Amino acid sequence: MLKFLLDRLLPKERLIKVDIPRMDFADEAIDAMAAISGAIAEGQITPSEGAALSSMISGYSRAIDVWDLSRRIEEIESSLKEQK
Question: Do the domain assignments include residue 54?
Answer without folding.
Answer: yes
